[in-house]
Design a protein that fits this description.
- 48% of the residues are buried.
- The strands form 5 sheets. This protein has a 6-stranded mixed sheet, with helices on both faces.
- The longest helix is centred in the middle third of the chain and has 21 residues.
- The protein is α+β, with helices and mostly antiparallel strands and 400 residues long.
- Strand 18 and strand 19 form a beta hairpin.
- The protein is built from 9 helices and 19 strands.
- The protein has 2 domains: 255 residues, Zn peptidases (Aminopeptidase, 3-Layer(aba) Sandwich), CATH 3.40.630; 120 residues, Alpha-Beta Plaits, CATH 3.30.70.
- It is 33% helix and 25% strand.
- Helix 1 crosses helix 3, helix 3 packs across helix 9 and helix 5 packs across helix 6.
Length: 400
């Protein structure tokens, strides 16, 4: 990339974007926790680390689990400024239905391939940003890029980053179509189990049918979902929701089932807690138990991920908004996203976080592409925002 006057940034060329994004897409980084036998993140992490090191950054690889590292690259600041974290994930989902998932193909403004959109486009934009900042002599404060593993499954990568690193703010570069994402829903995974009594199918008075009892639970949960969706909506996210996902029970055709297990997912809004969400379900079960002494069921919370929301007046939001307006000539839209992102983990760690990334389509789909021009624009926006944000005076940041 050409040298840049100190303190100034430009925009990556189409050639630079295509070259880097193609290299990233060509590396299989399917999450092995999501798809057994998946390649994992090591190869792409080593590529990212080498590319950033060649660009002049301080770089390290930190294994989260064996063979699955995070990449941490730093553009050291000139001194006295705020610190900024850019976060992007390295892993992808599987490739079912894709003919040539790791053979990047360019058609016009679109670059096709697994991960092109979700989210190697955002990763490429952040990498190009850091290279520009390094060549420009750095921002006032440190800018750190974290390329994280496992976002598509349990987010172990960002979970680790949130405990290891500190920054005054963060930008997650998930694809947003160059809009500013200020909020997203959280989710809870729960298990409900009904308990019956096993008996021979010819002896109905001896058996209690756990599967039939689960039918009552399903009716109650459908009603609960209706209540949740009838509540006053969040201004950016609408309403929460609940649905049944997986069900299993019984042992054979000629027996009354002693147990039935249901897995459910609850999508949550800012302000909802794990305690309140679990209590909603348990209240329905307890109500059924009071009506029928033979009904026995319990519910447990298996996984909780916080919803996310950032104050639109946060300095990092204003910096990103001003940078995007300066690049595009128009003020970008603010919105909320339906799905969960790592932004919630950074925010929960006390780091004000906003989400902005490139355009495209096909996350988790058989046809996936990213807009080449949007990656270049995103990179310029991130660089301008970094210079603006880190150049503002603020609290002292702890360097990792």
């Amino acid at each position: 990339m050409p040298s840049t006057p100190r303190g100034a940034v430009g925009r990556p060329t189409r050639t630079q974007v295509v070259e880097l994004l193609s290299q990233l897409v060509a590396i299989d980084s399917v999450n092995p926790s999501l798809v057994p036998g998946g390649a994992g993140e090591e190869d792409v992490a080593r590529f990212v680390a080498g590319w950033l090191r060649d660009a002049g950054l301080e770089v390290e690889l930190r294994e989260v689990v064996p063979g699955r590292p995070n990449v941490i690259g730093r553009v050291r600041g000139t001194g006295g400024g705020r610190t900024l974290l850019l976060n992007a994930h390295l892993d992808t989902v599987g490739t079912t239905g894709m003919a040539a998932p790791f053979e990047p193909r360019v058609e016009g403004d679109r670059l096709y391939g697994r991960g092109a959109f979700d989210m190697k486009s955002g990763l490429a934009a952040a990498m190009l940003t850091c290279a520009m900042l390094q060549r420009a002599g750095g921002a006032a404060g440190d800018v750190t890029l974290t390329g994280v593993m496992d976002e598509e499954y349990a987010s172990l990568g960002t979970e680790t980053i949130a405990t290891e690193l500190r920054a005054d703010a963060a930008i997650v570069t998930e694809p947003t179509g160059l809009r500013i994402c200020l909020a997203h829903r959280g989710f809870a995974w729960m298990t409900v189990e009904t308990h019956g009594r096993a008996a021979h199918g010819s002896r109905p008075h001896d058996g209690i049918d756990a599967i039939a009892h689960m039918g009552r639970v399903l009716v109650d949960l459908e009603a609960l979902d209706g209540e949740i969706q009838a509540r006053p909506p969040h201004s950016l996210l609408g309403t929460g929701s609940l649905h049944a996902s997986l069900i299993e029970g019984g042992q054979e055709l000629s027996s009354y089932p002693a147990r039935c297990t249901l897995r459910i997912e609850r999508r949550t809004l800012p302000g909802e807690s794990r305690g309140s969400v679990l209590a909603e379900v348990r209240d329905r079960l307890e109500s059924r138990g009071r009506e029928d002494s033979h009904f026995h069921a319990d519910a447990e919370l298996d996984l909780w991920r916080d919803p996310f929301e950032v104050d639109g007046n946060e300095a990092v939001v204003r910096a990103v908004e001003a940078a995007a307006a300066g690049v595009s000539g128009t003020t970008p839209a603010r919105y909320g996203e339906a799905w969960w992102m790592d932004a919630a983990l950074l925010a929960a760690a006390g780091i004000p976080t906003v989400v902005l990334g490139p355009s495209g389509e096909g996350a988790h789909a058989a046809i996936e592409w990213a807009s080449i021009e949007s990656v270049a624009l995103c990179s310029e926006i991130l660089a301008r925002a970094a210079l603006d944000f880190t150049g503002q005076s603020g609290r002292d940041a702890n360097r990792p």
